[in-house]
Here is the input.
Amino acid sequence: MSISMTPTSPQQSVVPNRRNPQLLAVGVLCIVLGGLGAAFAFLSATDTIEALAFTRAVSSGQQIVATDIAVVRINSDTGLAVMTAESYDDVVGSQALADISAGSLVNPAAVGRLTQPTGTVLLGLRLPYGRLPNEGLRVGNELLLVVLDDPAARMVFVPSTAELGDSSDASSVTATDDPANVNATDNPAASGVSDTAPDVSADTSRIAAILAGAPQLLADGTNWVINIWVADADATLVARMAAADRIALIGIGDVR
Here is the structure.
């Protein structure tokens, strides 16, 4: 009878792993930095202020009413010039100094309160395209009104006596806007032309004004209505020339 014996190996001892203090320190540092980063991101996202924004488009010169603005919350570090909710009462009742689109934040430079200058009157003008700038006009701009020559005072051809046949024929021609009906006795026949001097002197051909309201396009699509302030002494002349369609407007500066 044979007996098999299985050799046994001596029991191996287990040595515990040793922790690396440096790795532990790095891990702790990463956890701390991650927490600080998350906290900073959270604070940045929640560090906001209450600002004013326009709820609808407002034209330059238009008075701002309560329904035109609302309080919104924005990040405090946008770097934008804004007006906070504390300025609500100051903005309501002021004027838009430029065309403002809906959703825009209220910029301090875009709103203000304009008062009529002493010694001026308010006039409304109707001007066609080509008689005023099509952009860049802001309430408070300094303007120059140019009085145009009378459209009827233009160069008119006067037939010479040779062309008319004789002087009796020339004297029978009357002075009207029709070149075929011109009084030769009132115009130098030798020159062949007649020009009538404008009835506006050089001193009154240019008149200072201030833009009081933004231009508004009329329904006809070709004419604009605009409000201006002019000196009392110029008001009558400007009204007369405007009624005769003899005014053009130039924007020359900003008096705000």
Q: What stands out?
A: The chain has five helices and eleven strands. The first helix runs from residue 21 to 46. Residues 217 and 224 are 4 Å apart (CA to CA).
